[in-house]
Amino acid sequence: MDTKKKILKAAAEEFAMKGYNGTTVRDICRRARVNVASINYHFKGKESLYKEMFEFLFKDSRAHEILNKPWNGDFAGWKRSLREWVANILGEITSQKPFDRCKSMIFRRELLNPSDIFPDIYESFMKPRLNELTRHFRKVLPAGIGDEDVCIRVFSVSSDCLFYMHDRPIVDMRFPGGRFPEENMRKIIDFITEKACYGLKINHSKPSKRKRRKK
Q1: Residue 31 needs a FRET pair 20 to 30 A away by CA distance; which of 17, 24, 60, 66 works?
Q2: What local confidence, expressed as pLDDT, does residue 160 receive?
Q3: How many CA atoms lie within 13 A of 188 on its CB side?
Q4: Predicted structure pTM score
Q5: CB-CB contact of 104 with 165 (8 Å)
Q6: What is the mean pLDDT of residues 146-160?
Q7: Which is the CATH superfamily of the domain at 60-204?
Q8: First to last CA, the chain
Q9: In the chain, what are the domain boundaries?
């Protein structure tokens, strides 16, 4: 592993445990076994390192790929993409892999106790993902629906997924170690997807043709 990746990995572990304000550059240096000069050379300081760490953590996310697949206008295909998106988000949130656990902990810290650079994190990483989900809903919502109504659906499906991150202690008590039985996970994914789709199929389905009366 090269020095830059080693620093990013160490930074993710430190920020996950202590948060942005509670972590020092020296903490990261000790974990990565590098000197301060290495961090200054690669990142120019703690703030720049934190922002680049987010890129490092989320660069392999499939959320963008899932919601930007070609769509032929059928509601069933739209719903499958949404379900796949929900499954992907929940998979990352409930993953037991150390790297994914770090990602969830850092994200949760920023949402519950935002750091001073949260506005930059929101603009660079959170807002684009919310916009992608918004565009996905716009595909099947009536043309005249307002932005606030779209946001309600976007925030609703997002918060349903994020529950399993925010309330991790409760989830871990119910499912020790956060290990969901596979059947339960499928039910959770289906429930969130169906809730998000409430009322949409009617709006997007073609009107049925009335039968002509016999003369």
Answers
A1: 60
A2: 92
A3: 20
A4: 0.80
A5: yes
A6: 92
A7: Tetracycline Repressor, domain 2 (1.10.357.10)
A8: 81
A9: 3-57, 60-204
Structure tokens at 75: 């509601």
Place of tokens 């659906």: 153
The tokens for 48 are 């720049």
Instruction: Tell me which residue has tokens 């996310």.
Output: 61
CB-based burial label for 139 (10 Å; 0-12, 13-18, 19+): middle
| Residue 27 near residue 18 (C-beta atoms within 8 A) | yes
**Tokens 């989830």 — which residue?**
171
Residue 6's SS3 state is helix
3-state secondary structure string across 161-199: HHHHHHCHHHHHHHCHHHCCCHHHHHHHHHHHHHHHCCC
Distance, in Å, from the CA atom of 202 to the CA atom of 200, rounded to the nearest integer, reads 5
Q: Is 77 helix (H, G, I), strand (E, B) or coil?
A: helix
20: amino acid identity, one letter:
Y
CATH of domain 3-57: 1.10.10.60
Q: How far is CA 24 from CA 14, 29, 49, 50, 53, in A?
A: 9, 9, 11, 11, 15
Give the model confidence (pLDDT) of 55-74 as tens digits.
Answer: 888 776 777 788 888 888 89
Tokens of 6: 């080693």
